[in-house]
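Practice problem: predict the structure.
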Amino acid sequence: MALATLGVVVPGIAAFYEFVVKGRKRLGYRVQMDTTATNVVETDDPGVFDQLREPLVDPTLVLLRIENNGQTHIDEDDYAVLHDKKAGVTITFPDRKVVGMVVTELSDDGMRSSFEDGGGLAVKGSRILLPKVPMNRGAHYKVLAALDTMNGKMDQYPPPKVACTIKGGVTGGKIQETRSRTGTPKRVIALIVFLVAIVVAQLVVFTQSNNGAPLDCASGHLNVTGSTAFAPIAREAAKSYQDLCPDATFGFDMRGSGEGLQFLDQAGRDGKADGQLTFSDGEKPDDMPGLLPRPIAFFLFTLVVNKDSGVADLTGDQIERIYQGKITNWRAVGGNDLAIRLISRNPGSGTRNAFQRRVLGGVREPGTNSDDCRNRDPGSPPGVVRCARDSTDAVLRTVESTPGAMGYSELGAATGRAGLTAIRIDGHPATVDEADHGAYPFWETEFGYTAGEPAANSLAASFLRYLTNQVGADIIRSYGDRPCAELANPQLCRPT
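Answer:
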């Protein structure tokens, strides 16, 4: 009996220790190599690092192994960093700067996509930023870094510091240093040194070309028109582009998708479309054949109500009946006893067109009957108070300040406003996943339009590339939207 009890208790204690005390999720790292990379024997031939255009002062090589040495799978969400941060692990080299870096080994080829463009792999001074790599139990990858001194030659450098927090288990997971079990063969080291030398040489050439600016930089002036919903993203992306490419300047006159498309179309007909770019929530009208679309983002919109309305979820049928004027008080849909007031965008707005097409089933909104959005104008027929505003921000400010008001806007612009409640549609919130899988209906493709094909080296073409596959894509994500290429169903973004 005692033995039987012991046979149950001991494994139980072991399991408790392994999964609770020790923690289920563990990310380990090993410094498998940290060595100088200078000539040991003096010869007539220069060393591989001495052949660079700007030789390194005191080059060193570090090989690190990052591994899942816990008991469970590590997911992207297990990395305890802000959701909009792509890097999950930071490696810091005190007193050294990173001049080159390669990922040399993946134990599972499924991890490869995490290191592709946009995955979060980056070098910043003395740090290497590694992406939030999903890893099965026992999986690992290796990172080889070429370094140089920051403060003159030293006999010995401090070891690398690896920072990260992994959530999981009762007491929380963590990152810990593990011991290397095997050494690195000399032939492998020689091959690694050769490969790193190539990487460092390319890096030196890159940093000395174009004064450190990205290779895709363009110069000139770009006039941007169109969607007020996309305006905050466009402005932030333009500022970021200018920081990298100081010879580029931007002007903005964003009054709505419809007005921007009409301006660009006329500029194209007049032969004055060079340096013009228009963003539109959705596709152009059929009578503008000269305008060429480029899908930029999967753009989310949301219905919003004044918080006093007392509602947070509406069915598609309820929304249609409200805009038809058949429901006039929030009490009829489970809210407070408050008259409904509808704040819309002016005709020609891309946001309004998306709302009519995606939510109202293609039915046009009725005309307005109020200027102040609180009372019907004299002589207007009875019914729901309806008014319109000319920008996303104006709609949101009016809904916030008007009891019983409801309107619609781009999701990012509405997020974080204390006086508003975002409406779920048929129980589904405005998220990329919900919309990508057909559950949430209020979305649209954001297009960038030019009159004809811009020159490949023009500022318009360069800025469009920047938005879709460079830092601009990160800015789009930060507003709650998604670059088209990252959708589970990228076909959704294509013009019909």
